[in-house]
Specification:
Blueprint lengths: L13 H5 L8 H5 L41 E10 L2 E10 L6 H11 L19 E4 L2 E4 L13 E4 L6 E3 L2 E2 L2 H8 L18 H11 L6 H5 L1 H4 L11 H11 L9 H6 L11 H5 L6 H18 L1 H10 L6 H5 L12 H5 L4 H8 L1
Parallel strand pairs: 1-5
Antiparallel strand pairs: 1-2, 3-4, 3-5, 6-7
């Protein structure tokens, strides 16, 4: 077969004849762009700094520090006994997160000591029933968290000031007897337009009314805690705030100052503020109730200006017997207490209490 020169091939030019040969490429590969080389890009997020002992973020940029685990067990040292005597008994239970002392006491009752006696009601810190001495300090069992107590056995004992009935239950009837001796609120005749009070007087009384009668202030008061014989003539901090509330009320017309001095034993309090420190409602018992009551009693007994004023105005201090009377007993004549006691009118009392 004879060879045909390339110049004679139809459709072929001289430039095409001089170009180098081109390798054949598949249509799919020819359409695909050339892959770009990888380029290193700096991370815009700054590194996370983690202090020693702190847990790092979840993404693993810093190792998380281990969270210290609480004790696996808890030991409750609970007083068991009655009026004749008793002793502390230890109960060891598995620890549970978020418990208060009352929760553990209930678990002791449910598992190891079903005959354990304790008093409780609301479990919300508002009834005052579950008062006890926890590690030697009066507290509410329902408001004392286990994780806030120091490590080791937790001692739970009844309030020492009152007679023991059984285990953690005490006889607090002394307080109810003292409550009976507080003369009731005695307002004067209602003026035209009704009774009116300043807001500052309302707030003063509201602080004392926050009392939940847990009687922990009574328990810690050394006047009756260490001297049983004083209970017959000492009302205690709880009732001093009650007397103060009534005496500072601008509409009350009774005069209880001599009653507080002679019958309630206000002078035996030496204002150590123990009662204020244990109050779960944070009432300033000493500063806002006991000290002002002492000042009022001293003024009524030893202030020469007050004595002269009573002589000129022909007024006299109410005796304890007069202060103990109530309007319902008809002891105040025509129903106007200030006429019998020589006390100030509601307007004068309001001005004097501001």
């Amino acid at each position: 077969m004879s060879e045909v020169p390339m110049s004679e091939v139809p459709g072929t030019t001289e430039d095409e004849l001089e170009a180098p040969p081109v390798a054949s490429v598949a249509p799919e590969a020819a359409a695909e762009p050339e892959a770009a080389a990888p380029v290193a890009v700096a991370d815009a997020t700054p590194p996370v700094e983690v202090a020693p002992g702190e847990a790092g973020p979840v993404d693993g940029t810093a190792p998380a520090a281990p969270v210290p685990a609480g004790p696996a067990e808890v030991t409750m040292r609970v007083w068991r006994g009655d009026q004749t005597g008793g002793e502390f008994a230890d109960y060891t239970l598995p620890a549970q997160e978020g418990e208060v002392v009352l929760d553990v006491i209930h678990r002791v009752q449910a598992t190891e000591a079903p005959d354990l006696a304790c008093r409780w009601n609301c479990k919300a810190g508002k009834c005052g029933s579950c008062s006890a001495e926890i590690n030697g300090k009066p507290r509410l069992m329902c408001m004392t968290r286990m994780d806030q107590l120091p490590e080791g056995p937790v001692t739970v004992a009844p309030m020492r000031t009152f007679p023991i009935l059984r285990d953690l239950v005490t006889d607090v009837s002394f307080n109810y007897e003292m409550a009976k001796q507080v003369p009731a609120f005695q307002p004067g005749p209602e003026p035209p337009g009704g009774y009116r009070m300043l807001q500052i007087d309302v707030e003063r009384g509201q602080e004392f009314r926050k009392c939940i009668e847990c009687f922990m202030c009574q328990d810690v008061c050394h006047v009756i805690r260490d001297h049983e014989e004083n209970k017959t003539r000492y009302a205690g901090p709880r009732f001093f705030i009650r007397y103060a509330e009534l005496e500072m009320h601008p509409l009350d017309t009774n005069d209880r100052r001599e009653l507080v001095r002679q019958k309630a034993g206000l002078g035996m309090c030496n204002i150590t503020k123990c009662c204020t420190e244990v109050c779960p409602e944070h009432i300033k018992i000493t500063d806002n109730a006991i000290i002002p009551m002492k000042e009022r009693v001293v003024d009524s007994s030893y202030d020469p200006v007050g004595w002269l004023g009573r002589k000129i105005m022909r007024r006299h201090k109410a005796s304890p017997e007069e202060a103990a009377r109530t309007v319902s007993e008809g002891a105040l004549g025509n129903g106007s207490p200030q006429e019998s006691f020589g006390a100030a009118s509601p307007e004068e009392a309001a001005a004097g209490n501001q």
